[in-house]
Write a structure and sequence with these properties.
Elements (H helix, E strand, L loop, with lengths): L2 H20 L9 E5 L2 E4 L2 E5 L12 H14 L7 H5 L2 H14 L3 E5 L2 H12 L5 E5 L4 H10 L2 E5 L4 H11 L6 E6 L11 H11 L2 E5 L14 H4 L8 E5 L9 E5 L1 H10 L1 H4 L6 H16 L1 H18 L8 E7 L1 H13 L2 E2 L1 E3 L9 E6 L6 H16 L1
Parallel strand pairs: 3-12, 5-6, 5-7, 7-8, 8-9
Antiparallel strand pairs: 1-2, 2-3, 4-10, 9-10, 11-14, 13-14
Helix pairs in contact: 2-12, 4-12, 5-6, 7-8, 13-15
Bound molecules: pyridoxal-5'-phosphate.
Amino acid sequence: MSSSVTSSLTATLESELESLRAADLERSLRVVRRVHGAEVEIDGSRAIDFSSNDYLGLATDSRLAAAAEQAIREHGLGSGASRLISGNSPEHEALERALADFFDAESALSFSTGYAANVGTIAALAGRGDVIFSDALNHASLIDGCRLSRATVHVYPHGDTRALRALLASHRATARRALIVSDGMFSMDGDIAPLPEIVSLARGFDAWTYVDDAHAAGVLGHNGRGTPELLGVESEIDVLVGTLGKAFGAAGAYVLGSATLRQYLINRARSFVFSTGPMPAQAAAARTAIEIVQNEPELRQRVNENARQLRSALNAGDGDAHIISVRVGDAAATVRLGATLMEHGFLVGAVRPPTVPDGTSRLRISVSAAHTPDQIERFADTFAAIARQ
Ligand SMILES: *Cc1c(COP(=O)(O)O)cnc(C)c1O
């Protein structure tokens, strides 16, 4: 590679990074070592983590590690090929049976990540001539799946089912297939999609429903089956997606639906077809996590109780959603607030554009079953003291 080519590239990228820096939007990696429970070590200093999606504290659970170790001894590390070639391990099949059982679904197909599940599945279900109705605050992987599909996409204002109805009325009839896509619990503010209304609109306008429940699966609902269970619409969602990297403490993701949907995606979801199968050990760990979620409902209760305790201490509204968002507005101020909390030993998410719209930067505080009441109290006191200044 000639150095003039390289330096032209570097100069171009450097100037783009400079604009990000000037707008306080440049991000950098920090090294985070998980110590125990919610305790982490960041670039050498100890902190209590209020930023992770490890809502049940399972990421450092020794039972998941033991299941992964056992699977590595039995199957080796990599799966060696895509699952359609020779990479379909008994661990993948066992995980998918466990997922279908746990969620009381006809069928499950697992993917390497939630990102891969969404881009692959949406693009497989919709194409040119089809129409997708998408909530304005949907996760980036849903947005990317919509774009990749080449379907016509209509974005409706966040949670606004009247606007959704109007868009369906205007654009459904001329399209071939129609898909309504929404997060179940929204990642930034922890609020919940109006699934009963969405399901009823879908029925009225002959559209399919696609729900990504990454933040609620394993946590919400009597059995931990997430937002559709909480809202009583489980049997009415056509496609339910979730990740195994958040509450389940492992990695990977799944798509739940009919056996036909599974067989179709095996043939048509490009992120499934053209990607090496996930590590069998990751599937084994996830299956252990599902068993734990099934057998230990007290974990869900603890997240809810912890969330209630923190919400009430922060005056952050009622309810027990485990994601609490504190709107700051300005990106630089949000970063400063995050840094001050870090100096006091608390790690929270400082969320800036492009993750959220301009001028709506916020602190994203997430609560886990691994937090002790004492950690929550100390965090709330520190937060209140800093907010007062
Ligand atoms: C985290 C997240 C994903 C991506 O899942 P990964 O397994 O981390 O790739 C998809 N959708 C939503 C709503 C998420 O919050």
